[in-house]
Structures are given as C-alpha cells and as structure tokens.
Amino acid sequence: MDAVAIGQKDNSRKAYYKEFREVIEAADVILEILDARDPLGYRTKEIEKMVNNSGSGKKIILILNKIDLVPRENVTQWLEYLRKDYPTVAFKSSTQTQRKNLGHSSASTAKISDNKLQHSNECLGADDLIQLLKNYCRSCNIKTSIVVGVIGYPNVGKSSVINSLKRSKVCGVGATPGLTKHAQEIHLDKNIKLLDSPGIVFARDQGGDKNSEILLKNCVKIEQLDDPISPVELIVSRCSAQQLMNKYNVPMFRDVNDFLIHVARQRGKLKRGGIPNIDAAARIILQDWNSGNIPYFTTPPTSAITMEVENN
C-alpha cells in the first residue's frame, strides 16, 4: 500500500507520512473525518486496522461531516450503517467567516429543521462529539486527559471540525488541498488535546477510474492537473444529462467532449480563433464538483455501493 501525501508537487511524501504516523501513535482517540456525500469513498480501513491492531486500546470515532450537503434521510441511513462499526457523529462545521468566535447550535441534528440545517452558519454536532470525548476521559482508569488525533483525506474538513469544536479559528482553513502540512496541536480544554494531521490518501496508482476517483475528492489542486477531462468524464457518468444541462445552460450533448465544448462556449472559454478551451471548461466543472455546487450523494451498500444523484 503506497502512502501518498497530496499537496504541492514538491512536498515530501515521506515527511507528510511521518507527521501522520506521529499523530496516530500519540492519540488515544482517532477522529476519522468522512465526507457525508461519499462516506465509504473517504474511509481508510487500512488505518482503522492499524489502530485496532496496535494493542494500545485506542478508540475510533467516525465524523460524518458536511451533512448539510445531503438529504436528511441519507444522513440517517449512513449513521445506522456506520454505527455498526464505530461510534459515529453527524456534523456540520461552522461556516461563519466574519466572527472571531464560532457559534454552536445545541439542537439535535436529527431534530433540526431542514432550513436551519441548510442555511445556518452555526456548527451542528459539536456538543454530541465533545460529550463523547469527555466520556472517554472519565472512562480511563488512570488518565484524566486524552489526546485526540484528527485524520482524513485532504480537504475533507479536518481543520474546520477542529475550529468548530474550539469555537475559534485556530487552524488554517481553505478549499486548497494540502493546506495542513504539519501536525497542529490544539487544546480543547484541560483534558482534551487535539492533533490535526496532514491529509493523506492511501491508494495505489491504478490508473483509469481509480485515479479519477481520487481527483474527485479534491486531493490535488485543480490547476496542477495534467488531465482535467478524465475526472469530468466520471462526473458526467454519475449525473443525469438533464441535471448538467440545467446547471450549465447547455443543450443536449453526445459525450463528455461535446459537453465541455458547450460549457466552454457558454462561459466564454475560447482559444485564439474561437476554438473552445475544453481544459478550462473541465476545470470549471471540477471546481463546482469540489465545492458542492453539483449535488450528489451515495447510499449505504447492501451488496454493492449505489450512487444516487440529486436532480435539479
């Protein structure tokens, strides 16, 4: 299994992985941050196995982050599925940008109104998570404090979760992959210390759809992609043609190339001589996908994973 740390092209993968391992080894509790739109796609069972086999009694908690981007019933289904393995908390990080102190909502994520879930700037799920962590503090025979390692893919929301728990902007946050390059230590209170780890992708370079899947997780900066079209082909295969036509105000298209030609013309992305710049159009699509402007979500598997896409 190759450990691939995604950041700028000149970043040391070995250094990223060293930082990551140090967080795992130091932590008593591991918070694994998952994107609610595709929880299994962001889950690293290799790490869970490594933690469980360490013999150190470390705990794992799954955080179903970005729950405002999927239907409520989908969140409920995933919670039921994931809780068969580990404690799982539904979470929405605070999106407040102007205030120094970030707000918490004490409302249950299961009972909060759809309107507040979709439009509130306040964090949801923090109280449940903090209470769970405090229970672990009390359950230790000798220790009265715990170290909590926060892990997950690049740009899955690790730093946002920490900021929301701390109620202040103690970690850098941005839509750029690889923003956290070193482990950061944050004291939540006198008994709980958080460690934010660099984002790491565990995957072999298998080519084809496997690499495109990684690119759709916003693990590589869009401007660094040599081939932005292949992942867009995967997006087109997942979304209905009507959804994309409505989203980008384009006519019916035959394939991904035809779709990108229409988008390039619609957005004014033209080369000299009026030739559509399909690479530039593809980067627009990828940016919309990564930011959640193209709605999608997965459903828990029965015998296989089923992908569902919201139609606009």
TrEMBL record:
Q: How does it sit in the membrane?
A: Peripheral membrane protein
Name the major location: mitochondrion
Name any one Pfam family assigned in the record. MMR_HSR1
CDD domains linked: Nucleostemin_like (cd04178)
Where does the record place the CP-type G domain?
A: 17-203
Which keywords does the record carry? Coiled coil, GTP-binding, Hydrolase, Mitochondrion, Nucleotide-binding, Nucleus
The Swiss-Prot or TrEMBL record annotates one GO molecular function as:
GTP binding
Q: Quote the InterPro entries the UniProt record gives.
A: G_CP_dom, GTP-bd, GTP-bd_ortho_bundle_sf, GTPase_MTG1, P-loop_NTPase, TRAFAC_YlqF/YawG_RiboMat
The record's function comment reads: Mitochondrial GTPase involved in assembly of the large ribosomal subunit. Plays a role in expression of the mitochondrial translational machinery.
**Similarity comment: family membership:** Belongs to the TRAFAC class YlqF/YawG GTPase family. MTG1 subfamily.
Q: Which PANTHER family match?
A: GTP-BINDING PROTEIN-RELATED (PTHR11089), GUANINE NUCLEOTIDE-BINDING PROTEIN-LIKE 3 HOMOLOG (PTHR11089:SF30)
**Protein name per UniProt:** Mitochondrial GTPase 1
Upper classification of the organism: Eukaryota, Fungi, Fungi incertae sedis, Mucoromycota, Glomeromycotina
